[in-house]
Task: structure prediction
Amino acid sequence: MTRAGRVVNGLALAAVLASSSAVVYADNQDVIDYRQHIMKTLGEQAASIGMILQQKAPADNFATHVKIIAVTAATAKKAFEPKVLGGDAKPDVWNNWADFSKKMDNFVAATDDLAKAAASGGLAAAQPKVQGAMQCKGCHDTYRVPKK
Amino acid sequence: MTRAGRVVNGLALAAVLASSSAVVYADNQDVIDYRQHIMKTLGEQAASIGMILQQKAPADNFATHVKIIAVTAATAKKAFEPKVLGGDAKPDVWNNWADFSKKMDNFVAATDDLAKAAASGGLAAAQPKVQGAMQCKGCHDTYRVPKK
Result:
């Protein structure tokens, strides 16, 4: 769809939905863009945590970064709910939704537990939980199109 | 510095600092990488909020996104404290540190206020505060190297 087409489509849809409380998506590219903003946030924050664990960044922010991961994780499943293929998502996200959804729920629960450990006990308490909570690769290997 | 040089430098610095509680940075590129992870997180979350305000993404996550912005904002100043030129930061970040630092503090306070409004009153209560809290452009125009 052209940019102009997207804008028109967005306005039309917005008009249709203006009086409802339904979830509003302007078009498929918006669905993809939105979930990519969330996944990129997780990527940037995971990288920050990785740098701290490698002593390449100050540990002072560790508990905050894991909190951001936990809070962001809770927004991710909703972003994948619309079945819109494209971006870096494999079709298996929706073909195997029960498994994908369960993995997302586990990620939310595990990062929440990690954030609580970091908030109460700092890096020392949380570090042993990081690998278990941040199973990025396992899920990406199954559900993300490999990076070129 | 070569990649190998960076690793060696990192190990040497880590060894020097292993017995101290000082902030550990492996090298200048790490300092730049770390602050970019944080600023990119803010960018992705600001984009998410923008999409919601344009009704291109579901409003359900609005309060969560502004919370992520607020929590992330609180990590940003520390990431700029080491005076390491490069990346997208203009030298004025450190030449005018008092102003930059004050703008960062204002950003933290305003996004915290925004997050509280969103948590208690949702999108309707928070929306009028978004523009005042998210003064991204004002600060970027002064302190960020323009995008090519």
About this structure: Chain A touches chain B through 38 residues (CB under 8 Å). DSSP finds six helices and no strands in chain A. The CA atoms of residues 42 and 69 of chain A lie 6 Å apart.
